[in-house]
Amino acid sequence: MTEFYYVTISCEAQDYYEVMADSEEEAKEKAWKIALKAIPNADHPIIHAESQSERRQQEEFQEFLERKKNEERD
Asked: Where is this region: Disordered (predicted)?
């Protein structure tokens, strides 16, 4: 199933992209192509891919932690 992957490409400047891919590996391959075409001097970029569902889980966890923190204050 194809889903969104959020791809972070780190080199001299950090850039963020969204790509559609069937797997994390495919998302990283697409990110590599972006890095080579769009980012000057991207000889050795570090590429991190995170699926939309992984990001959603992380955001929900952060919201949970924030609610817990607020409850403890009250």
From this structure: 47-74
Q: Which residues of 48-66 are buried (b: 16+ CB within 10 A; e: fewer)?
A: ebbbeeeeeeeeeeeeeee
Task: Render pLDDT for 25-72 as a digit per residue (tens, 0 to 9).
Answer: 888 888 888 877 776 666 667 777 888 888 889 899 999 999 988 888
Q: What does the alpha-carbon distance between residue 11 and residue 42 come to, in Å, rounded to a whole number?
A: 6
Nearest to 55 by CA among 29, 16, 11: 16
User: What is the number of structural domains in the chain?
Assistant: 1
Domain span including residue 13 = 3-73
* Residue 32: both structure tokens together: 């590599």
